[in-house]
Design brief:
47% of the residues lie in helices and 19% in strands. The protein is α+β, with helices and mostly antiparallel strands. It folds into 3 domains: 8-82, Winged helix-like DNA-binding domain superfamily/Winged helix DNA-binding domain (Arc Repressor Mutant, subunit A); 90-135 and 229-335, Beta-Lactamase, CATH 3.30.450.40; 141-226, Enolase-like, domain 1. Strands 7-3-10-9-8 form a 5-stranded antiparallel β-sheet, sandwiched between helices. The protein has a 3-stranded antiparallel β-sheet with strand order 4-5-6. The longest helix has 22 residues, at 314-335.
Length: 337
C-alpha cells in the first residue's frame, strides 16, 4: 500500500528538519530532532521516521553519514500545511505601514507604486525582489472612442484609469453612423465592470449589425492589457551575503534569471493566474520564487515577489509578502476607485 498521509510525529520531524536546516544550513541529525523537538522519543525512532519521510520524497540525505535536508517536495508541504496561520508581528506590520505612509506622498502614479513595492520587499527580506505591472485586466480601460478612417478601418482610442491614452487601428467593415453610439455603450459598461466581465451578447443585442467591429474592439483591448507593464528588480546588493550564491552553478542560475526578463514574467504570470500566493521551489535550478499578485477593485494589477535560494526563511518571507500585498492592494483600490 502506498502511504500518502503523514502521522503527527512525522509532521513534527519534517517541520523540525525544515526549520533547523533553514537556520543552520547543515544536515539535521536524528539526535538534534529528538533532543529539541521530541524529547520523549528515542533517536532510533526518529531515524525510522526520517527513513519514511525520505522514501516519500520529503527529505534527502546528502551522503550516507550525513543527516537529512528538506527536498523541494518537503518545503512545499511545509509551506502549504505548516505556515497557514503564520503572520508578522504587530511591530513588523507597523513598520511596513510607516514606510509606505512616508513614501505615499511622493508616489504620483501606478508605476511608482510598483517600483516602490520591489524596493520595499528587497529592503525587508534582504533578498532579490521584483515587481511587475501594471496590467489592466481590462478594468483599467476607462473610456474609448471609435473614429472612422476609411470604409474598412476604424481608429480605436482608449484611456485607462491611470490617465494613459493609446490607440489602435482596427480593420473591418462598419457603419460610420453607429460609431458614436457604440463608443458610448461600451464606455458606459466599462465604468461598471471589466472587459473580461462584459457580456458581449448584451452589446450585440443593441447593435447586431456591428458584431465584427465589436469583437475586434474587445479582442484589441484584451491584447493590450500588458502593454504598459514594466518589470523592476531590486536587492542585487544582497546577493553576495547569501551563502548559497557562493556556489557557481546557483549564482549562474540567478544571473540568468536577472538577465532574462521573460523567465521572471513567466513566474509572475503563473502567480497572477492563480490569484494567490504562489511558489516555485527548485524548478529553476536551486532557486525558489515566492510571488503574490496585487489587486485594485478585486482585479489583478500586477505581482511582486522574491527569488532566492531554496533554503529561505519562509516563515518570515511568506507573511511579509502577504502583508505587503494587502497594503499595496488597499493603496491601489483607494487611489483608483
Amino acid at each position: 500500500m502506498i502511504k500518502v498521509m503523514l502521522t503527527e510525529r512525522e509532521k513534527i520531524v519534517l517541520k523540525a528538519i525544515v526549520e533547523e536546516y533553514i537556520n543552520t544550513g547543515e544536515p539535521i541529525s536524528s539526535k538534534v530532532v529528538a533532543s529539541k523537538y521530541c524529547p520523549y522519543v528515542s533517536s532510533a525512532t526518529i531515524r525510522n521516521d526520517m527513513g519514511i519521510l525520505e522514501e516519500m520524497g520529503y527529505i534527502t540525505q546528502p551522503h550516507p553519514s550525513a543527516g537529512r535536508i528538506p527536498s523541494p517536495k518537503g518545503y512545499k508541504y511545509y509551506i502549504e500545511n505548516m505556515l497557514v496561520d503564520c503572520t508578522l508581528s504587530p511591530q513588523q506590520k507597523m513598520r511596513i505601514r510607516k514606510i509606505l505612509s512616508n513614501l505615499e506622498s511622493d508616489i504620483r502614479d501606478l508605476r511608482e507604486i510598483i517600483r516602490t513595492t520591489s524596493w520595499l520587499i528587497a529592503q525587508l527580506s534582504k533578498l532579490l525582489a521584483f515587481s511587475y505591472g501594471p496590467i489592466s485586466s481590462g478594468k483599467f480601460v476607462k473610456k474609448l472612442w471609435l473614429t472612422p478612417i476609411d470604409e474598412d478601418s476604424v481608429l480605436l482610442i482608449y484611456m485607462t484609469e491611470t490617465g494613459d491614452v493609446d490607440h489602435k487601428v482596427i480593420h473591418t467593415k462598419y457603419n460610420p453612423l453607429n460609431l458614436e453610439r457604440l463608443s458610448n455603450i461600451i464606455s458606459n459598461r466599462l465604468e461598471k465592470e471589466s472587459i473580461d466581465r462584459i457580456d458581449l451578447k448584451e452589446i450585440l443585442a443593441l447593435l447586431p449589425e456591428e458584431e465584427p467591429l465589436v469583437r475586434e474592439v474587445f479582442a484589441s483591448l484584451k491584447e493590450e492589457r500588458y502593454s504598459y507593464a514594466e518589470s523592476h528588480i531590486e536587492g542585487t546588493d544582497y546577493i553576495d551575503r547569501i551563502p548559497e550564491f557562493n556556489d557557481p552553478e546557483t549564482l549562474k542560475n540567478l544571473i540568468s534569471i536577472i538577465n532574462r526578463e521573460e523567465l521572471v514574467i513567466e513566474q509572475i504570470n503563473a502567480a497572477i493566474n492563480s490569484g494567490n500566493l504562489w511558489t516555485s521551489i527548485g524548478e529553476k535550478g536551486n532557486l525558489t520564487f515566492v510571488i503574490v499578485p496585487y489587486f485594485a477593485k478585486d482585479l489583478p494589477v500586477g505581482a511582486a515577489g522574491v527569488v532566492g535560494p531554496i533554503r529561505m526563511n519562509y516563515r518570515y518571507v511568506i507573511p511579509l509578502l502577504s502583508y505587503i500585498k494587502n497594503c499595496i492592494s488597499d493603496m491601489l483600490t483607494i487611489r483608483w476607485r
